[in-house]
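User: I'm writing a tutorial on reading structure tokens. Could you give me a worked example: one chain, its sequence, then its tokens, then a sentence or two explaining what the tokens reveal?
Assistant: Sure. Here is the example chain.
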Amino acid sequence: MNNTRVRVAITRAVSPRIAECELSYIARQPIDFARAAAQHDAYERLLASLGCEIVHVAAAPDMPDSVFVEDAAVVLDDVAIITRPGAQSRRGEVDSVADVLQRYRPLFRVAEPATLDGGDVLVIGQRLHIGVSQRTNVEAVEQLNAIPINFQDCLHLKSAATQIDDETLLLNPRWVDARQFPDLNCIAVDPAEPFGANALRLDDVVLFSASYPRTRKLLESRGYRVEVVDVSELEKAEAGLTCCSLVAEN
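And here are its predicted structure tokens:
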């Protein structure tokens, strides 16, 4: 019997309308669609080189934010939580993501009046930590029996903190108070790189944006293996590395 586990990374192509994306905490800039698409392709190639099978959700060219599949779901070991995004414009993204995820997990859907963006969810051990934000409300925290986390000045909790090993968070202490994670070690981003806390962990590898070299060097000095990818055009849409994929092991 073959017991080899397969890791899939679920992604979706960049919409040609990405420049019309929702924005909350950064100023709107022109976004070069072709460059954003090329960077997304490079992101997928990096995931593939690290052992992920890339699985594509149906393209949604009329949905500007649809490349950010993380907000549509939260993938756990035994279930996938299908979200109800806080921005009305993004709720149409969810069903096509659910269509793919049902191949790998039973589905649980967050119900009204809860709103939830996957970017506000940190899965730490067996517990969900959910950032209460303009996109995610306390009803979602209650439905999922999660630990509420307070943060400020950024769109999603994962803009402020992500897990980089079993015991450690990378975070921006100006945006989220590390004391809300008493059982974890915390590494602060370089103060000059406030958006540098969003990293994607795959086993002992940390995928990291090329936009934050000081924080990257800090991680490398701590012994982390860091793989860098340029997502600067996607970052103009208030994105981070975790936004662009849903990773599941089977």
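What the tokens reveal: The chain is about 20% helix and 25% strand. Residues 211 and 232 are 7 Å apart (CA to CA).
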